[in-house]
Each structure stands twice: as structure tokens, then as C-alpha cells.
Specification:
Length: 161
């Protein structure tokens, strides 16, 4: 079976950045997703179209087809008091928060802390990066009617929403 919309795909992958550093990879068990529903970045989904079990390939995905370009307007300096409920002494770079924005809730990460202000970045951590994937397709099967109605895979007991 070939990968097309409404097939469930199992694959192993390694994701590297432009410097060749590995930034993500599948675990011992393959990564499983429902094809054609935007569950993975569009550039990788497009590269998988038509492949079959046993196929291996490498693909470079531009920011446009990956996690988008960085938007410097999403980097903001806010007063420490904005972090209600968090002990000010605990605020550290790398901490993530859910923030309200004009576009709805957004995850922001602290990139800097000083005496009375905190710098937060609302960009996806991989925004602006060229993504290099090495992929091996393990299995392709038809999605079940339930999977199609939910828009995601139900894989054994590993069912979470
Ligand atoms: Zn479901």
C-alpha cells in the first residue's frame, strides 16, 4: 500500500538542523500518524506521499513548509509581575508558559530574566529553521472509520486526545 490521504503511516525518523545537530528522533517504537490531516509539518507530509513500507529517504524542509519563519514581534519584554502565581525568584530562561495573545493561547518560552523584566519568545522553537529529515517508512495501512472521524491515529492502547 502506498501513502495517501487517510492511510496510517508508521515510520522511524531523525531530524537534524542546518548545523547537522540531531534535534529530534523517533523512539524505539515507530512514530505513527494519520496522513493527509496536517498532523505533521506540510513539507514532510508532501515528501511521504506515494511512498511505501521499506522506503528510506532524506528530505530538507524549508521554514515555509515547516514551522514558519520567526516573527520578532512575538519576542516581548514584560514586567516580572506579569507572571502571577510564580515565585519571581523561580523565573528562569527555558521555562514555558501559556500566554493569551490576540491569536488565542500561545506557548511562550522565557529567553531572558533581569532585575524587573522578563523576555519571552512566542515563536515555535523550530521556527526559521531548515529541517533535515531522514525517514524510513515501516508500515502503511488504511485508517479505521473512527480514526478518520477523529482526525488522528488510535494505536493500540495509546489513545489520548
Ligand atoms: Zn480519537
Amino acid at each position: 500500500m502506498r501513502i495517501a490521504s487517510n492511510t496510517v503511516v508508521s515510520l522511524q525518523y531523525v531530524l537534524s538542523n542546518a548545523d547537522g545537530d540531531i534535534i529530534d528522533q523517533s523512539a524505539d517504537t515507530p512514530f505513527v500518524y494519520l496522513h493527509g490531516h496536517g498532523n505533521i509539518v506540510v513539507g514532510l507530509e508532501r515528501a511521504l506521499e506515494g511512498r511505501g513500507a521499506g522506503d528510506s529517504f532524506a528530505v530538507e524542509v524549508s521554514p515555509e513548509d515547516g514551522y514558519g519563519e520567526r516573527d520578532e514581534r512575538l519576542v516581548q519584554v514584560v514586567p516580572r509581575e506579569a507572571f502571577g502565581g510564580v515565585d519571581e525568584d523561580d523565573l528562569q530562561p527555558g521555562m514555558r508558559f501559556r500566554a493569551e495573545s490576540n491569536d488565542g493561547p500561545r506557548i511562550v518560552v522565557i529567553t531572558g530574566v533581569d532585575a524587573d523584566s522578563v523576555t519571552v519568545d512566542g515563536n515555535h522553537p523550530l521556527a526559521g529553521q531548515v529541517l533535515s529529515f531522514v525517514v524510513e517508512v515501516r508500515e502503511v495501512r488504511e485508517a479505521t472509520p473512527t480514526e478518520l472521524s477523529h482526525g488522528h491515529v488510535h494505536d493500540g492502547d495509546d489513545h489520548h486526545h
